[in-house]
Structure prediction request, 145 residues.
Amino acid sequence: MLNSLSIRNIVLIDSLDIDFNSGLTAITGETGAGKSIILDALCMATGSRTDRNLVRVGSDKSQCIANFSLSENMQKTLLNNDIDFDVNDGLTLRRTLTKDGRSRAYINDQVVGGKLLAEIGNSLLEIHGQHDERGLMNSATHLTL
Prediction:
């Protein structure tokens, strides 16, 4: 479960910290309010491809940090990839992006490759847009999520 999201210097957002309580969280707002920017930031933190245009104008770099609850399966994945963790702290994915397009990825404050960040991010999160059912059609993800 996503516990919190911290966004710095992404598109129109200077600084935003969101804590998600247990239960359903709905992000609503008028067109142009920033809902898609929040999703773009979450995708950035979980290893999706990013565009340097996400860096806020006037900033040298952007950063997004997502903290998730730590499941037993994820603990095994972290152990298999030599990533340190504390069960009480959860799993923290962090990614920075510079205005020249360079990116750095971190899992629990350890530098990792983008491929590992994306692999772990994909196992934690699945985002669907309108008429987007790709993940729903993949039976391998039905039980793991």
